[in-house]
Design brief:
The protein is an alpha+beta fold. It has a domain of 86 residues: Alpha-Beta Plaits (2-Layer Sandwich), CATH 3.30.70. Helix content is 47%, strand content 23%. The chain is built from two helices and five strands. It has a five-stranded antiparallel sheet with strand order 1-2-3-5-4, covered by helices on one side. The longest helix has 53 residues.
Length: 136
Amino acid sequence: MKNSQIKKLANMELNEDENYAIISLNPAIFPVDAVKSAINSAMYKALAVIAKDSSSEIIVELRPKGNGKGLEELGREFNNWLITNAFDKLEAEKNKMEKIETCHEDKMSIIEENLAELEKQAINDPLGISKLWKEA
């Protein structure tokens, strides 16, 4: 059995002899959805396996397809996809919340305008029809 040498770079472990890269991720920083999106982006260049080691780590194994890119380049490209997808997810959530707040503010404004109009109409009652029956 051959003793494989593993090269460690940041969150990557590269095994050149067996042609695979292990990328370790913190799920508190990178949500599983962002990891899956990054794997989807990598699927034309690499075979990928995802495993959640525990609540503190997500492990992604990448194996390049054919004689494509080197392991380090593939791992760095995966990290770029991951960061992009995580950022896009955060921005989408932020935009969603802003739209909800804007919609809520618009509806509150309309309600306030309608209430003001109803109060104005109640004061301007030239026919006296807004009085209760007991008052009449």
